């Protein structure tokens, strides 16, 4: 809870003057009440933790209003430098009358002026002279006052008095706000006032000179230094820290360092009072090592200081990276239990992959987009002896050629324009002792294939712009969704690199080849989305027969779409499939063969088939079975020339192709889901 300060003085102007000075220093960390004595009801108690009064005689007047628990500060006052300049410009030898709110306050300011070296004029207190004879006198006033005689012609207004340094420090002590009085505030105060306490000024100046020497020393340390107080606010921030972090002093000093630098474990150190050694963090895009130590003395915690460095020492860099980068984005999340399926194909593939994981040989994973190549690769890593180390993945098709080279092999400082100061380790180095997963390996440019081949053969790499061989102990898992053997035969992929990678080949089956997994996977994904809906038989049939060119990834996207529909039951019409895609090629699969045969049977009467199917669907939607006579009557009304015999033949053919079901007697005919699907396809084909 904030504490309260009451400022009591003779005039509104002087109260406001002290108020502005105090607020500029302590901001909104205290509550300040302004009280002019003329407005004070002498029967009321001044509610405040501390009361500031300008003089003893003021205190005598209000002491009965001050509670016994309240602290009391007698203001040590001084004047502004601009006011002092006005006094220095007064003609030497001039008799000057100083006018203030009370005899005691006038004597105090006269004493201050003498301490500040005013000797060239004759100073007298307004309260000690004959005030009827002042027409030839010069008067010094402090702001506005009601005591200026009418016959005074020469008035020098030096402005309201200000609180001196020792009063400012006294306030900081009473309210436990010393951390707010940083050197910038004190310096700003020096610039505005003439401090009357010269001894204190010298002490503070000496302290600041020592702080300046310390700051100079900190600038020469080749590390960033950030210090925070026990309250978390930043009090120290050197030039090297500024270069690493990229923030200016005014964005950092006195700000909450715990929130501002959440990557640095300040909060943990303040809570435990224990050091954090060589913590790897990323600041401003740089990998940085931060060591944080508590600042304590005699068992009391005063804050914490962080020493931060970019990587410049290769051995230290490798040590920290290899120890800490696990869990910082270069880790494998999945195991073989995360590969879902009950088909023989997928279980056999998992069995082969498990055996491969025991080896250190390179693996080439092939399979269509969305089959789970990286999922298998992560499971292999987590089932291998390298599972305690990094799994570093890179998509070879996601980077331009020059950038991919620097990502893989790293670079030294100054290797090219824009190269990071201190250089940068490559992914080979980060994967040391672990696994390097090269996705879309067939997208790697030819010249990089040569460099990769050498790295795999020698188990050594050289950074761009460097000449030092760096040993790397890694396992390579490469993956592609293309026919890599065709690319090798065409000369688009190096044959020697193919053989180096294809030591252990692993082919992931597409989803359409393991149809028994489709509904099983769909139910699993629905549960993962914390949803609960079911499929109609027609929708299930479509899911099973659909091509799934995007494989498991496409199935997951499909389920996510259906989850957002918020339906309890999913029917054929709700599935996000384009019928043109479903009947994509007339030479694919048994359903396509059926469609070709059906279209041949319909021949030139295709529009009549569409009409009958359309009427049957309308009956289906109205929960009615239609007979050939009712269909014939509708045809006459609509001007469609089709006989009952033609309708009978069409219905028989539709049942032959499982597109309709004819019931005995007068029970009518019902369209099937296959018939509805065919109608939709034919309608789109006839009206593209």
Automatic annotation (TrEMBL):
SMART domains: AAA. One of its GO terms (molecular function) is ATP binding. The keyword Nucleotide-binding applies. CDD domains: AAA (cd00009). Pfam families: AAA_lid_14 (PF25601), Sigma54_activat (PF00158). Residues 339-564 form the Sigma-54 factor interaction domain. Residues 210-258 form the PAS domain. One of its GO terms (biological process) is regulation of DNA-templated transcription. It comes from the Bacteria. This is Transcriptional regulator with PAS, ATPase and Fis domain. It comes from Sedimentibacter saalensis.
